[in-house]
Amino acid sequence: MEFYKTLEMWYLNNKRDLPWRKSSNPYFVWLSEIILQQTRIQQGLSYYNTFTNHYPTVLDLANAKEDNVLKNWQGLGYYSRARNLHFSAKYICNELDGKFPTTYKEIIKLKGVGDYTASAIASICFNEKTAVVDGNVYRVLSRYFNIDIPINSSKGIKYFKELAQELIINANPKEYNQAIMDFGSMVCKPQNPNCENCPLENGCLAKAKNMISSLPVKEKKIKIKNRYLNFIVFTNGEQTILEKRTGSGIWQNLYQFPLLEFDEIATQKELIKKPLLKDYNTSTIKLFNPEPWVHKLSHQHLFTQFWIVDTQNISQTNSVHWENIDNFAVPKLIHKFLDSYKTK
């Protein structure tokens, strides 16, 4: 049986019951794909449900305030995706008369939409023969055809896209694309793949050559940069201070406590020399987390400390009542601190 037919048959009997698969509404598929980028389905489901409840249509999302969108996104990370989602919703409503684009060439013009997402929407919602290539697809194809070209190289990206496109020509795009992604997630897994129950096992070249564990191949990652962040949590018992981040960056337009960054782990002695601390009439300074919390991003590791600073010198500017602090969209690190702080 041909590769695509085998996968489609497998999918018919094994496909996962997911809410966005119950409709061909491109808004729902788009929303799910953006949420699930680098997010497990189990975690992404709750966010998908939150967004569809708050913003059941693309118009509702377009009319929402950015702060509310970011608050609903809180915990997923990569906040630029939420901002792009919001931007594109407004673009669809204002520039496209509320009509979602129907072809790959038009869908990929949406801000924050790349080849994978455009292919997924175009094939699933409009049955266009454009192949998806995500981590699951890379894994299935590299193993089945025993391809050792690095998947994160320019050559690899082009090669696998062309191969995937060849394989979809005779397939049902909607079923095939979802089949190969589910198959990679459920059977051809990164660790401990279920080769014994794999319908493709007989034709799998990597299996025949005992290369499963070596594929897919990735080029070495870039050097990780360490950063040392110190959040200053001013408090007078009733109020604290939050600042809205401006400019570009991963936490753009999110709220945080005043921040001081050092070249290494900071001590209290180093901290109190900074003008930020001198500007406040502080009575006590206490380190909340003796061991820095390490937040790992793709290109940097954030070593983070939170300093509790008691002061009566909190003006109305940027002041927030502790009882209202959950109304603000904050980075995951700040959210983790708030959860811990409330329980102490």
Automatic annotation (TrEMBL):
PANTHER family: ADENINE DNA GLYCOSYLASE. Residues 35-186 form the HhH-GPD domain. Binds 1 [4Fe-4S] cluster. It catalyses: Hydrolyzes free adenine bases from 7,8-dihydro-8-oxoguanine:adenine mismatched double-stranded DNA, leaving an apurinic site. GO terms for molecular function: hydrolase activity, acting on glycosyl bonds. Belongs to the Nth/MutY family. It comes from Wenyingzhuangia heitensis. Adenine glycosylase active on G-A mispairs. MutY also corrects error-prone DNA synthesis past GO lesions which are due to the oxidatively damaged form of guanine: 7,8-dihydro-8-oxoguanine (8-oxo-dGTP). Keywords: 4Fe-4S, DNA damage, DNA repair, Glycosidase, Hydrolase, Iron, Iron-sulfur, Metal-binding. Its EC number is 3.2.2.31. SMART domains: ENDO3c, FES. This is Adenine DNA glycosylase. NCBIfam families: mutY. Its cofactor is [4Fe-4S] cluster.
